[in-house]
Design goal:
- With 147 residues, this protein is α+β, with helices and mostly antiparallel strands.
- The protein has a single domain, classed as Gcn5-related N-acetyltransferase (GNAT) (Aminopeptidase), CATH 3.40.630.
- The chain has a five-stranded mixed sheet, with helices on both faces.
């Protein structure tokens, strides 16, 4: 498995959009829809098995608009928009390597890495981000359909 920072060429964007469609079909996240070109932001890192992209991660920089319990207004942060790895390549280190690539890219440019998730399996997400990648749990937004 090799992790590379990729450019948003038409070919690469189409591959990322295709992978996001696989993610949608898995039905493992609430509200997930297939990406469009406008959804994909730089930097983008991809996990390769040979010449095939088997996972990706991207995010963006932002500044806190107001005081948060962890950061003052104006603090520079990096938000992880998406990390996805094909099912057959999970638990082999690709997701961790993609997260590490984003973290290394953001170091020196941001004070915090942030993310929101809408997974249907919060235990796996907490294990991946908190236990395996050193993130801290900050808040939760819970829902219950009562219709």
């Amino acid at each position: 498995m090799e992790i590379k920072k990729i450019e948003l060429t038409d070919e690469n964007v189409e591959k990322l959009i295709e992978l996001s469609g696989v993610w949608v079909d898995e039905n493992i996240s609430f509200g997930m829809r297939k990406n469009t070109r406008e959804d994909i932001k730089e930097p983008v890192f991809a996990a390769y098995d040979g010449d095939t992209i088997v996972g990706y991660a991207f995010g963006h920089f932002y500044e806190q608009e107001k005081y948060q319990s962890y950061a003052d207004k104006g603090t520079k942060c990096f938000d992880v928009d998406e990390i996805y790895v094909l099912p057959g390549y999970r638990s082999q280190g690709a997701g961790k390597a993609l997260f590490s690539a984003l973290e290394e890219y953001a170091k020196g440019k941001a004070s915090f890495i942030t993310l929101a998730t809408s997974t249907k399996d919060y235990k796996k997400i907490l294990k991946f981000y908190a236990e395996n990648n050193g993130m801290e749990f900050h808040s939760a937004f819970l829902i219950k359909n009562i219709e």
